[in-house]
């Protein structure tokens, strides 16, 4: 199983070749995303147009969407606590990572790598593997 980040979903919608190549190379694997990623896609879509809920969800119909659960929240809390214990990471930086931190909680809880172009941020999260496409 692999968890597709919002960057992947946005690039899929745009028809980015790297996404098509990744999907072709991983066609036998289960691909999922999270409701947190859906929220990020909704924000991005509404900055450029006014799509309906149905249109956006139809665009994501090819991937299974995992709901954010209490287990995911617990794991995300552990990851955040680890960041806060690191004196080299500023509070503002942690705050700016909140969406990715929640996504990382999902990924670690389901033991799946995050597939993203946003490698630098996700590599900060202990116990979360990352794949770039």
Q: How would you explain this protein's 3D organization?
A:
This protein is an alpha/beta fold and about 130 residues long. Helix content is about 60%, strand content about 10%. It is built from eight helices and five strands, in the order βααβααβαααβαβ. It has helices at about 5-15, 15-25, 35-50, 55-60, 70-85, 90-95, 100-110, 120; strands at about 1-5, 30-35, 65, 115, 130. It has a five-stranded parallel β-sheet. α8 links the parallel β4 (about 115) and β5.
Strand-pairing-aware structural class: alpha/beta
Distance between the termini: 15 Å
Order of helices and strands: EHHEHHEHHHEHE
- Distinct helical segment count: 8
Rough outline: globular
The fraction of residues in strands falls at 5-15%
Count of extended strands: 5
Assign a percent range to the helix content: 55-70%
State the strand order across the main sheet. 3-2-1-4-5
Q: Rg from C-alpha positions?
A: 15 Å
Q: What are the low-pLDDT stretches, counting only 5+ consecutive residues below 50?
A: none
Mean model confidence by pLDDT: 96
């Amino acid at each position: 199983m692999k968890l597709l980040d919002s960057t992947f979903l946005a690039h899929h919608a745009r028809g980015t070749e790297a996404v098509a190549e990744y999907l072709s190379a991983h066609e036998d694997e289960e691909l999922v995303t999270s409701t947190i990623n859906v929220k990020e896609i909704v924000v991005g879509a509404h900055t450029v147009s006014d799509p309906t809920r149905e249109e956006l969800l139809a665009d994501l119909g090819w991937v299974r969407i995992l709901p954010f659960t209490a287990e995911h929240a617990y794991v995300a809390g552990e990851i955040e606590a680890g960041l806060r214990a690191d004196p080299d990471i500023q509070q503002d930086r942690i705050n700016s990572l909140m969406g990715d931190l929640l996504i990382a909680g999902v990924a670690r809880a389901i033991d799946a790598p995050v597939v993203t172009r946003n490698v630098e941020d996700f590599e900060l999260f202990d116990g979360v593997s990352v794949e770039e496409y």
